[in-house]
Structure formats: structure tokens, C-alpha cells
Amino acid sequence: MSDEQESMDLFGDMHPYNKLFQVFSKLPEKGLDEAEVLREIAHMSDEENAKWQNGQCSGTMYHGGMEHYDFLNKVFSMYSYVNLLQRDLCPSGTKFEAEVLSMVAKMLHGEEVTKLNARDEVAGAITSGGSESIYNAMYVYREWGREQKGITQAEVIAPSTIHPAHLKAAHYLGMKVIQVPVTADFEADVEAMRAQITPNTVALAGSAGNYPNGVVDPISELSELALEFKIGLHVDGCLGGFILPWIEKLGYDVPVFDFRLPGVTSISCDTHKYGYSLKGTSTVNFRNKDLRRYMYFAQEDWSGGIYASPTIQGSRSAGLSAAMWAAMVSTGEEGYLKAAKAIMDAADKIRAGIANIPELCIMGKTTFLISVTSDMVDPYFVNDYLSMKGWRMNGCQNPPGFHFCITLPQTQPGIAERFVKDLADGVTFAKDPPYEAPKSGFLYGMGASADGREILRQGLKSWVDASYEVE
Ligand SMILES: Cc1ncc(COP(=O)(O)O)c(C=O)c1O
């Protein structure tokens, strides 16, 4: 197959409906019949829901219950057209967001900060997702560093497992993230991070848990380090922030990562993941209001009137905030605990199954997310086999492997057992694969050299281009 054919296929894979439905590269002259629009959309939605409803998809669908989504959609529909920027028109939005932030702060033991220092009080903001929460935290540290320490080349030190949203924020903000290799246990190497601290360091960052392996970094040690050097510490709890507190309450051994630690100055925590709300919401929480203030923007002399905004977004839908609030108050502590228990039961079954497959090993100490590698077989061949069996894992690298982020769809009866069986069969497949290079590892192989990495980076950008092209 020529390169051109290959890229055409990539395009085709991204646009499977071009063959089924009319492609609109310009507005239709006459509007379509609404019933027809709904039919087309329902076709695509049904087809795509089937890909994860069987419980074979890692992460991404955190709740998966259609009744729950119907309820949230009902709430959303009452506010979908309301702009939360116009607070006077929807004081209900203010109620929803303030209460969500208070509930999240409580879940993250926010009351402890005031006990330690009467002037502190956890102060948060609602954002559009984990990346924006992280962006806002990074921005706060840059501004804090500039104002309090005169730092103009702000640096944040983070383990190599930190989510790319930190690097993306640094890219936008003219900051630098210094990535430090993790320990053999896939945890932040605190001493190696200490060695990178310079007068330009504004903050440290760690995860609870990290995306590649689900590992919670030693946040208590990072907290001590941050206090010692009088710098910030951001905890990326986008993934684990909404489930680890409940896993801890269930009695599992979860390292403390939240505001109980005196050096933790901010935590990102996503409502649209294990908070079980609709996509498009997250929270970022600071140790005190002074820190949060660095994030705000206000212009008092604009010809269009006075303007103030806490985060990146301007106009935004009150529907998402209403649904976020509704998800939290309808689930309640009892619901979050029940969900965490079901998820941990499934994860424990999978962990026990993996312990019986000598060729595989789990990366790090984990709870709801299981990351698998092997030094006996190529894990990408195992993943190829799992793909053939309908599983959708997330590929990892350094070392090669894949992870399974366990969510509620995996708690359906029999899923964990079927996964363990397919995993064992995948190892047999990987011992004598019928082709030379594993399909799921093909891109990762390029990361071995600087040239390969550059080609890969450009390829990824072309892939993004393709996602915005109609035909
Ligand atoms: C640990 C972690 N941080 C940050 C993010 C980014 O969140 P989002 O995709 O909502 O922007 C993710 C997403 O999976 C994550 O797992």
C-alpha cells in the first residue's frame, strides 16, 4: 500500500459516515426535515454506543447507565440554551456551581486547610474539563511566581507520567515543565525532583492517580518538598480525584493526596469522569482565595461594559453545570461508594487473574486502573489479540504495555472473567504471532529516535488536520 493510500485509509477510518450519509461541505440550501436529522444522528449514536456498552472499552465512559444519562439530559435540556456568563439571568447556575465546589472541597478534605491556617479556605472554579483545570492551575503558578518572586521563566517540575495537559498549558503560557523519570514503582522520584529545583521553580506537580498507570504519586513527600522550598504543589486528580476518596473510605490503602497535606496548593478533579456528570465539566481547587485570584480576569473600562471572567471560557452553557450538580446530588455519598465498590471488585478480579499469568506484570501499586507490561512477550501483540476480541485498551509506552481503566460498564456480570480469559489467550497469541510487527505498537516504535519522534509528532498533527476535513 502506498503512503498516499495509507493516509487515505486513515482519513476513511476517521470519516466512516461519508459512505453512508450526505456530506455537508456547505450549508444545505433548504433546511433538512428535523425527523430525518434525528434519524441520522440516532443511527450514528446507536452504532457508537454499542462499542462501549458491552463493557469492553477502557475508561472514557465512566457511568454508562442510559437511565442516568437520560436524567442528566433532562436536566441539561432545561438550561442548554442559557449562558452562564449572564449570572443575573440564571442565579440557579450560581447555586449549582457554588454548591458543586463546596461538595468537591469537602470530598478533598478542604476543611483541613482552615484548621492548619485560619486564613486559608479552599476556593475553586468550574472549568470545561481536566485540561482547562490544569491550564488554570499552571497559569496561577506562573502569575504567583511573577508577583511574589519576580520569576519570569517559570518552571514546574513533574514526574514523566504527568498528563500532557501540563505540557500543553506550559506551551501556551511560555512556561517549562521539567519531566523527571519515575521510580521502578512508576511513582514520582521525589529526590530526583528535588535535584531539579532552581530559583525559577514555581511549583511541583504530581498525580492521583496518573493516566499511564493509575499510580498515586508520593504526594505527602512532594508536599514536604514544596513547603521546604516555598513553592506550589499541584495535584492532578482529574482522573482519580472523584473515586480515590471513596476507595479510601471502602478501606483500601490509598496514599493521602488531598488538602490534608499542608503543601498541596491546588487539586484538579473532574466531575465529567468519576463524578459521573456529562462531558465538559471539571473543577480546579486552590488552597486559598488569594491563589484563585491570580486566575481571574477583569476589565472595567471596556466600551462593551464591565467584564469579569474566572476561567478561559466566556459564554458557556448553564446546562452542563445544572447536570453536574444533579449528577452529584442524585448520586450522593452512598452512590459514589457503591460505584467505587463495584469498580474495585471488578479491578480486584482482574488483578487476581493477572497474578495467575506469569508472563504479565502490573505496573505499580494501583486501584481502579490496571496497567500491564511484560518482559517475556511483546505486550502490544497481547493488545492486538484483545482488539481482535473487541476490547479497547489504552496503549502505553516506556515500558511498552496497555492499561485498562475500570469504569461502571466493566462491573456488568462476567466482564472481568472474560477479560482475564482473553488476556491469557492473548499471551499465547503473543508467543507465536502470525505477523511480524504488532499493530498496536507500530507508532510507539518510532519514539525510539529523535527523528522518529519528530516524524511521529508531525504525523499526529496531520491526524488532527484530518479530523477537521470533510472529504
Ligand atoms: C490524570 C489525567 N489528567 C488530566 C486529564 C485531562 O482531562 P481532560 O481530557 O478532561 O481534559 C486526564 C484525562 O484522561 C487524566 O487522566
Q: What does this molecule look like?
A:
The model is unreliable at 1-8 (pLDDT under 50). The protein has a domain at 91-327: Aspartate Aminotransferase, domain 2 (3-Layer(aba) Sandwich). It is globular and about 65 Å long. The protein has helices spanning 3-14, 34-53, 66-77, 91-107, 111-116, 130-149, 164-173, 190-194, 219-229, 244-249, 289-293, 318-355, 379-388, 415-431, 450-467; strands spanning 123-127, 155-159, 176-180, 201-207, 232-237, 266-269, 282-286, 297-299, 307-309, 361-362, 369-373, 394-396, 401-405. By secondary structure, it is α/β, with parallel strands linked by helices. The strands form three sheets. A seven-stranded mixed β-sheet has the order 1-7-6-5-4-2-3, sandwiched between helices. Strands 10-11-13-12 form a four-stranded antiparallel β-sheet, with helices on one face. It contains 15 helices and 13 strands. A hairpin with a 6-residue loop joins strand 10 (361-362) and strand 11. Pyridoxal-5'-phosphate binds at residues 129-131, 163, 165, 207, 210-211, 236, 238-239, 270, 282. Pyridoxal-5'-phosphate (PLP) binds at residues 129-131, 163, 165, 207, 210-211, 236, 238-239, 270, 282.
